[in-house]
Recover the amino acids of this structure.
């Protein structure tokens, strides 16, 4: 009916024209972009006041019938619209400028706003900025990009998960990471390795209550909203292909390790080890035979290869984005690598009248990584990183025939060879394990989302959205039966005939989300803009997993079930019948749910003043009775001072003052997504009990009063832009209080346990954030932009459970009222007593003592969570050349370096502990009166005592790092015209090329939650070269 | 547009149908409450099994542990091992540590966890309906075991945390005869109250235990004889014995004669059960007692704690004493008397069919009954009988008749008994208690040979009656209990 009417109308108009006096004519033109002069396909050209119009073609051209005096409006998403008055000429070329920054789209929770109108403290980083980076994980690239956002990656394994903390650690036992939302769908924050960073259009960090309260029980730690790329309506078919190739290697390490000659001399001096009793000639002979740097053996130069193809297209009512990626990167440590294949398709469509639109995002990824277990472990034969650092140089890395060894000539199962001389041979064991064993994870990850909205009545729009995040992973760990440790794996250790372990772990995690909303928006009297939205939301998630662990493998059949020695195999050992090959089996099924209703409203007066309010009610399955429903709310307001008349002559394009206050919750009280699933109930369990029979015992004492942790946050901020955007930025101050902290409340051990978890305690994060961007030069040929961000966050634990007396002691740190989270609580190491070479510690009473007492531990005022952090960089452009740098830094952050402590081990009986030293131990105390910082060889305390109980190895882990440097060249327009392509860009980039730090350890960057570094996988330097072709 | 309206309508309808309560009323698969956990006799049996499983005198490893471990590390029975990275150094040095992981924490938490499990099963047992008399008898036998184990756990606590076993009004430990509520903060009961509680549990256990039950003949479960064993021990240490106590000991000795030297070896290989009244079964997957002293196995490169030279010399005193062979592994490296390079491997836990580090834990052996009997005799002014008892055990261990000792007075007898207890019961969780109780009376403390104490840079002498022989109430208990009193000289 409606279509028919339109047709009739057109006919009628055609007749009307016949009587018009105006002269109708056909005009043509080309629409280009002002910045690079390239044609702009898909721009819309409309005759003002009519519905007549069309879109520019592939070459940016249009042809339209107009009357002289008509006004043509030319527009394009993200560009400033232009108007042309049709005169006598027949050709009109239009160059569109990039939209003013003030109109820039700003993503806020469940919707969008603009920089000028947004009420919230948010910050967006465009995906383009990070596109050249060589990290498989999108999140690693965010380090140093956003004020207040701490991104740390405690491992150099390609694709390793990063810990993300916004505005300070807000929980002690609960989740501390933000909620991640990709294209509207909440996703697993710990799994980004499978996602292609090049699909990302933008990352937006929602910081204050105005933006996060709408996420209710999941918004306490902030929200990171990621949008992926889309095609543009009316755009022609475009291809973009990028390939990169590069190298990665270990960063410079600060240890002055001993050579063969040095360590043998040191052993001789101290009457133990291989060097004990050796003559100079013998030492020299040995040094000539072998002087192995085990770091060189275990680390390597790896490669990175990527191929990316993106295809975009669009018609008047649809748009499509399709991308394919293959990514492959070796770890810098042997045996580790990462491969990913990903496909994404984002489609949008709308009805001809544009009242109904819908979209679908579909993303499939497959990744495969080979990893190394036991980083950080104290297990000599299992931590490969410690072997790489501490292996003795006099062990040869070569077999007698001259080839690189993988077993040091040791026979599998030879206990004496493994344990002799303080397990000296452990680097061979690790080399052997890395070479022969398997630790591989394969993952399929699917993100899928659908949304549709319908403007079904004037001012009313209904919207639905649903989607899912499915991760399905399989981990295979094989300890090879013929490896050096293979024979020890069965219950009967090496007495059994078969060795090895084969373990497979399957896990499937599906998270479903749906949201239905109704929006009313209207403008009254041109000045009063109102928007109200009500939402209904439903979240469920399902985790299924199983695992088996088979010991006893026939090496000939490894890789298949036929290799498994049957569980009922009986072997006679020490005269007794035994079953050495019993497998271990387990299965897990978990589920969570959340049902919510919420609403928000915005009111704006004259564009200058705006207020907003949000209220959300969340019903979490985790809590019962009075706590089943949680209510969260916020209020916010802004004043665009620059829009006031008295500011009309100022340099400010934008000066906006905004403030917000509100609450949000943290329902993940034990941290994990699938944690605290039934803590309100007392439960029993059955398991292996006495005499290998089943026992039934209490497994949990329920606490029905549990609730979410509650965060109340106040934020005041200013957004500004001066001199037509030359200088832009924002400043925010905030105070974020977490109350109802989920903590152990201590109870008497007569309950069979000493604690029950309850909601008790408060902590506060207060801080300032500054974000600046300055473009002093912007000419046709030259462009220079400087950007910087920085934040200060003070964290204070205000209240701990009363039963703790304000002090909860952990391994190196303690929680203390008035102290920051992560504060080290250690004995003050003073130095070495010149009289006897023993270490001196300061007792709690202030007096010096030679004995290390737990009761002398004190707060040091130092924490492993940084107080200051930020990033800065430059973007320099000359013609089609670009040169960009990005730096990141953290300050006032500390960590204990057990790696260093181990290299200075001088305690009693440890000279021959099978590990190398650094040259500083030659300075150990020897004679009364010696002033030195290394205690007497043979003194009482070990490196573990020093690094875990004292501040001797507690180091300043502040650093400044050149996170990225990129040089790029694009073919100029003139050259391109002769080629069958529309763009060609060549670039070279480097990650982590320079680091300035005082920290003595492999890598000053470590997980923000790590208090001590021992044998961790350091992050690498990565260089890549890339080519991008557009056609 | 109608098709769009229809689409929206269908979607909304589906959405509301699925979204009522299924997102909020969620319990996980396999949640089990108390009523569902214990419904039948078999459930009760698995609850009792859980109580046994909790009791962990042998738990620990890598430098911490329960009584088997700290009765070694805190005394003169061990030195640092060849593979030591400092495991146990601070304990050996007698640095006061009452935090989580310390000996005082281990015993306190393990025994009260065991007691909590026992009390939970006792509470649940009242709701179980037995279907026949046979079932009821079986049920009673299970309950009897619970009472005996509750007495055992309380007796352990009593021995470690009570300063003076014989002062009725001084503080002992918290008596826990029920499942407490989580806000209870209790002061320790007196010695008198605790002893009488333990005695009552022993009497109740004796009533309920059925000596004809099949499990009564399986020494991995407690039976009437073990209840008698506990009774002898309790009466001896609280100075509450009479001639009937000695009679009880005689009865036990008649039933459980001392093992021959051949059987003695089999006993520690878990290949024989001579003289064992009660032992904790340890099988595949259970805690590995060898881990208290070794990383992986009994080997000259793998021990972080070894037999002290002092104990070695004492065990070597009498040629042919089987206890030397049992306690010092044959692969030890002996360079010379008190040589600092001696590698003296603890041999008492050589591993068993269940695994190289796994052995059953012998809780009550008749040799201990005989040693207690000797002490009872000595204290009852029967020095001759005491000497005969000691001679009996020595003869059994050497395999040939040993000379009859001659005790001129009680102290001489006790000194000899203390020495014999060391040889017989080393690494079985007795030495610290012996030095505390008998040593305190004789003014004998921990006295280590120089070669041993320097292996850990530790003090060689800890005087008799040192306050540290009585364990501290662990710091962790104070966090949750504002009413409890610490033992003298310890911080709280």
């Amino acid at each position: 009916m409606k279509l028919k009417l339109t047709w009739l109308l057109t006919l009628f108009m055609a007749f009307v024209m016949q009587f018009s006096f105006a002269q109708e004519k056909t005009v043509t033109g080309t629409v280009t972009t002002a910045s690079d002069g390239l044609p702009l396909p898909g721009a819309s050209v409309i005759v003002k006041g009519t519905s007549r119009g069309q879109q520019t073609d592939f070459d940016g051209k249009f042809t339209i019938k107009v009357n002289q005096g008509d006004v043509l409006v030319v527009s394009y998403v993200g560009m400033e619209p232009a108007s042309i008055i049709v005169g006598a000429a027949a050709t009109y070329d239009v160059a569109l400028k990039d939209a003013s920054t003030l109109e820039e789209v700003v993503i806020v929770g469940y919707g969008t706003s603009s920089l000028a109108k947004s009420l919230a403290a948010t910050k967006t980083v465009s995906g383009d900025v990070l596109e050249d980076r060589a990290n498989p994980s999108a999140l690693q690239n965010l380090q140093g990009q956003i004020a207040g956002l701490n991104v740390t990656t405690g491992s150099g394994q390609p694709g390793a998960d990063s810990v993300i903390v916004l505005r300070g650690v807000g929980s002690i036992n609960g989740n501390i990471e933000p909620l991640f939302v990709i294209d509207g769908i909440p996703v697993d924050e710990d799994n980004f390795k499978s996602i292609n960073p090049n699909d990302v259009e933008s990352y937006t960090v929602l910081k204050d209550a105005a933006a996060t309260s709408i996420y209710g029980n999941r918004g306490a730690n902030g929200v990171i909203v990621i949008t992926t790329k889309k095609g543009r309506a009316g755009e022609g078919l475009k291809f973009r292909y990028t390939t990169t190739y590069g190298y990665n290697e270990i960063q410079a390490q600060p240890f002055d390790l001993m050579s063969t000659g040095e360590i043998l001399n040191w052993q001789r001096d101290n009457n133990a080890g291989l060097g004990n009793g050796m003559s100079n000639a013998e030492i020299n002979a040995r040094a000539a035979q072998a002087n192995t740097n085990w770091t060189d053996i275990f680390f390597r130069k790896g490669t990175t290869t990527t191929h990316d193809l993106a295809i975009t297209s669009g018609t008047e009512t649809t748009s499509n984005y399709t991308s394919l990626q293959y990514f492959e990167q070796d770890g810098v440590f042997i045996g580790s690598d990462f491969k990913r294949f990903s496909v994404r398709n984002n489609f949008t469509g709308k009805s001809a009248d544009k009242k109904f639109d819908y979209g679908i995002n579909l993303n499939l990824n497959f990744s495969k990584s080979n990893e190394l277990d036991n980083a950080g472990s104290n297990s000599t034969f299992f931590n490969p990183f410690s072997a790489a650092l501490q292996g003795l140089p006099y062990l040869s890395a070569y077999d007698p025939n001259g080839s690189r060894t993988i077993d040091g000539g040791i026979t599998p199962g030879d206990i004496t060879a493994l344990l002799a001389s303080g397990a000296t041979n452990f680097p061979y064991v690790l080399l052997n394990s890395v070479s022969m064993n398997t630790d591989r994870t394969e993952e399929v990850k699917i993100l899928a989302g659908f949304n549709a909205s319908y403007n079904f009545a004037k001012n009313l729009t209904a919207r639905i959205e649903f989607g899912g995040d499915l991760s399905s992973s399989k981990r295979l760990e094989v300890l090879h039966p013929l490896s050096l440790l293979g024979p020890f794996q069965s219950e009967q250790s090496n007495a059994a005939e078969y060795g090895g372990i084969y373990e497979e772990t399957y896990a499937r995690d599906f998270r479903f989300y749906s949201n239905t909303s109704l929006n009313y928006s209207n403008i009254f009297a041109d000045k009063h803009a109102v928007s109200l939205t009500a939402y209904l939301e439903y979240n469920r998630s399902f985790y299924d997993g199983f695992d088996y662990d088979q010991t006893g493998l026939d090496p000939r059949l490894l890789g298949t079930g036929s290799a498994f020695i049957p569980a009922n195999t009986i072997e006679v050992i020490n005269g007794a019948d035994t079953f050495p090959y019993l497998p271990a089996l387990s299965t897990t099924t978990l589920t969570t749910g959340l049902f919510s209703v919420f609403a928000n409203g915005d009111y704006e007066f004259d564009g200058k003043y705006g207020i907003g309010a949000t209220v959300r009610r969340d019903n979490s399955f985790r809590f019962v009775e009075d706590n089943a429903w949680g209510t969260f709310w916020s209020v916010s307001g802004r004043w665009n001072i620059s829009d006031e008349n008295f500011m009309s002559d100022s340099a400010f394009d934008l000066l906006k003052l905004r403030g917000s206050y509100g609450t949000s919750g943290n329902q993940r009280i034990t941290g994990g997504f699938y944690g605290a699933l039934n803590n309100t109930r007392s439960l029993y369990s059955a398991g292996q009990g006495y005499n290998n029979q089943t026992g039934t015992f209490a497994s949990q004492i329920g606490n029905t009063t549990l609730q979410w942790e509650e965060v109340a946050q106040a934020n005041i901020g200013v957004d500004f832009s001066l001199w037509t955007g030359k200088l832009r930025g924002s400043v925010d101050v905030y105070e974020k209080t977490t109350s109802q902290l989920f903590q152990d409340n201590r109870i008497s051990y007569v309950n069979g346990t000493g604690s029950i978890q309850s909601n008790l305690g408060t902590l506060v994060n207060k801080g300032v954030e500054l974000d600046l961007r300055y473009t002093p030069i912007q000419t046709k040929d030259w462009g220079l932009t400087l950007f910087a961000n920085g934040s200060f966050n003070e964290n204070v634990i205000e209240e701990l459970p009363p039963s703790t007396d304000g002090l909860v002691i952990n391994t190196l740190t303690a929680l203390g009222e008035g102290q920051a989270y992560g504060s080290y609580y250690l004995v003050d190491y003073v130095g070495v007593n010149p009289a006897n070479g023993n270490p001196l510690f300061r007792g709690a009473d202030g007096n010096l003592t030679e004995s290390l007492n737990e009761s002398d531990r004190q707060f040091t005022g130092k924490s492993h969570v940084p107080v200051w952090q930020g990033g800065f960089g430059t973007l320099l452009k000359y013609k089609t050349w670009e040169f960009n740098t990005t730096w990141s830094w953290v300050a006032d952050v500390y960590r204990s370096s057990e790696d260093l402590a181990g290299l200075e081990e001088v305690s009693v009986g440890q000279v021959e502990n099978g590990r190398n030293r650094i040259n500083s131990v030659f300075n150990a105390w020897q004679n009364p009166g010696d002033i030195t910082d290394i205690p007497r060889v043979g003194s009482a305390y070990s490196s573990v005592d020093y690094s875990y109980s004292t501040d001797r190895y507690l180091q300043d882990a502040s650093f400044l790092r050149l996170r990225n440097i990129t040089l790029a060249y694009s073919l100029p327009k003139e050259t391109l015209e002769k080629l069958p392509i529309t763009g060609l860009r060549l670039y070279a980039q480097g990650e982590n090329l320079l680091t300035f730090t005082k920290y003595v350890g492999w890598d000053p960057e470590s997980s923000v939650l790590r208090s001590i570094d021992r044998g961790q996988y350091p992050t690498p330097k990565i260089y890549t070269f890339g080519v991008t072709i557009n056609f | 547009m109608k098709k769009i309206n229809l689409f929206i309508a269908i979607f909304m309808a589906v959405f509301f149908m699925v979204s009522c309560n299924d997102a909020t009323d969620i319990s996980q698969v396999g949640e089990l409450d108390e009523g569902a956990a214990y419904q039948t006799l078999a459930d009760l049996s698995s609850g009792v099994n859980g109580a046994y499983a909790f009791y962990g005198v042998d738990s620990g490893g890598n430098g911490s542990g329960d009584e088997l471990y700290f009765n070694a590390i805190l005394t003169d029975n061990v030195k640092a091992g060849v593979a030591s990275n400092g495991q146990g150094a601070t304990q050996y040095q007698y640095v006061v540590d009452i935090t989580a992981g310390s000996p005082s924490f281990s015993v306190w938490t393990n025994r009260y966890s065991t007691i909590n499990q026992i009390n939970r099963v006792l509470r649940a047992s009242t709701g179980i309906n037995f279907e026949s008399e046979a079932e009821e008898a079986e049920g009673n036998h299970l309950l009897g075991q619970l009472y005996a184990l509750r007495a055992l756990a309380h007796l352990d606590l009593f021995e470690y945390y009570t300063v003076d076993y014989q002062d009725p009004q001084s503080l002992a430990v918290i008596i826990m005869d029920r499942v407490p509520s989580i806000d209870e903060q209790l002061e320790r009961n007196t010695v008198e109250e605790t002893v009488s509680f333990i005695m009552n549990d022993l009497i109740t256990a004796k009533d309920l235990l059925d000596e004809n039950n099949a499990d009564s003949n399986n020494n991995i479960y407690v039976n009437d004889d073990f209840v008698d064993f506990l009774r002898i021990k309790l009466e001896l240490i609280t100075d509450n014995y009479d001639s009937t106590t000695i009679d009880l000991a005689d009865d036990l000795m008649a039933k459980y004669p001392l093992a021959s030297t051949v059987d003695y070896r089999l006993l520690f290989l878990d290949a024989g059960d001579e003289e064992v009244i009660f032992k904790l079964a340890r099988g595949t997957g259970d805690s590995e007692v060898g881990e208290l002293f070794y990383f992986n196995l009994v080997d000259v490169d793998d021990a972080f704690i070894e037999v002290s030279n002092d104990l070695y010399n004492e065990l070597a005193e009498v040629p042919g004493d089987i206890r030397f062979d049992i306690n010092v592994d044959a692969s030890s490296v002996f360079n010379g008397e008190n040589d600092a390079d001696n590698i003296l491997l603890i041999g008492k836990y050589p591993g068993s069919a269940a695994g190289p580090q796994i052995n059953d834990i012998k809780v009550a052996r008749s040799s201990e009954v005989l040693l207690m009997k000797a002490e009872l005799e000595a204290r009852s002014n029967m020095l001759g009988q005491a000497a005969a008892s000691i001679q009996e055990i020595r003869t059994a261990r050497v395999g040939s008749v040993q000379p009859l000792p001659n005790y001129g007075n009680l102290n001489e007898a006790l000194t000899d008994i203390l020495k014999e207890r060391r040889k017989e019961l080393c690494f079985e969780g007795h030495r610290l208690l012996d030095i505390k109780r008998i040593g305190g009376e004789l003014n004998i403390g921990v006295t280590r040979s120089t070669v041993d104490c320097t292996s850990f840079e530790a003090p060689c002498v800890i005087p008799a009656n040192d306050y540290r022989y009585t364990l501290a109430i662990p710091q962790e208990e104070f966090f949750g209990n504002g009413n409890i009193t610490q033992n003298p000289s310890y911080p709280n």
User: Anything to note?
Assistant: Residues 3 and 9 of chain B are 10 Å apart (CA to CA).
